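Anyone have tokens for DUF2007 domain-containing protein? Sequence:
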Amino acid sequence: MHEIIRSNDVVLLSFAESLMRDAGIASMIADQSMSILEGSLGMLQRRLLVDSDCVDQARRILTDAGLGAELRDREA
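Reply: yep, here.
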């Protein structure tokens, strides 16, 4: 799995996850349970992870949906 978005905006993450599901790209939101430790203040960011084989496709879909500014830089 490859991190593609990191955010504490649950609406953004839900939308991005929905786009991945509609495209048939395996994805998951990591660190959701960390809100228990932080007291549900929304300070800790959650990560959208996608299947490593679909990173380019996922980035295109998210960019086309207007979420290009939210994408993490590619790892070297």
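The mean pLDDT is 89.
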